[in-house]
Automatic annotation (TrEMBL):
It is an enzyme of class 3 (hydrolase). It comes from Enhygromyxa salina. The keyword Chloroplast does not apply. One of its GO terms (molecular function) is endonuclease activity. Pfam families: SNase. Residues 54-182 form the TNase-like domain. This is SPBc2 prophage-derived endonuclease YokF.
Amino acid sequence: MQLTLPSTAAPQVVRHGRVAARRARVGWLLAGLVTLALGCDTEPAAEIGEQLCGPSEAKVARVVDGDTIELETGERVRYLMIDTPESTTETECWGAEAKAANVALVEGKTVTLTYDVECEDAYGRLLAYVELSGQEINRVMIERGHACVLHISPNGDAIADEYEALEYQAQMQLPPAGLWATCDPIPCG
């Protein structure tokens, strides 16, 4: 069976066909330009992230406390996903121990910084996961009982459960690790 369209419909079909063809050509042209622009990028993605957030590798000049370091560049880095007891303005239970652990782990060493969704806090500090020799220091601080989990969305949304599990293990091991064995009440969070 053959469908016959009224004579007034035929030009409309042709016109829509031409418009669709023109849109398709423009779409392919735009896609080509985007591909060309991306292909001509001379900077690796890590360098782009570095420009937006901060250095991806840096030497730690000093440890401020259990969850903050200062780089040789003068920038401060607040560890993502953890909170340690205070040791700078007021000494809380386990604050000095948390700072000492962080000093032993990273002070004077070159670390790798990985950023999440937001890379700076309201105080101008970089927000990062700090890695040294293949170990993420943020996790190490929790595993050893020097830190509590501090999840501030949107950073860490994809790994919050993993961090909570690490904290739970530190609390439940016998004897409990670090501040979980010593402090009552727990001074973070």
